[in-house]
Amino acid sequence: MTDRNDRRWNHNIHHHPRILKAVPAGAQRALDVGCGEGTLARELRRTVPQVTGIDLHAPSIEQGRAWADDVDHVLGDFLTHPFEPASFDVVASVATLHHMDAATGLTRMRDLLRPGGVLVVVGLARNTLPRDLPHVLAAITVGAVHRAAKGHWQHPSPVVWPPPVTYPEMRALAAELLPGSRYRRHVLWRYSITWRKPRD
To answer: Domain Methyltransferase type: where (predicted)?
Structure first.
């Protein structure tokens, strides 16, 4: 199968460059948590020699394995799969954390990072109205402009809605579990958390 990643757009793919820019120099191993059919994993593989994508959704993993790439597509539960602790230079997760207990997921991602490694989470959180109404209106407007210009690719993975955790709750959780992390709320229905694990 030929790579057509550059022709796709949706709210998740829009944030992939944020993850790719955060990959530390010399990274050898990357993990894509909730990889779906592997769009981000394939992008990571362009610069990282060993990339593993893991997902519970068997049809998505089958689609990922059909691509001609060197990504290791694992069908399994990220929380219980026997990865070695501190074994990845990059751990990335896009629109996955709200499918699990957020604290448990962030802790597991943190523990799988090597010292000096980088964790980047792009996630969905729940809006609280009317406080978040300006964010909602901005997201609707900007999203419509992007879709008109780029189209919209619908991923095959399961959808969970609404997200169980609010934006302020995610900010607080990141501060608690990942001291020194950078949390940002973005226009297109997403937040991001970026954290570099301290070296021993």
So the answer is: 31-121
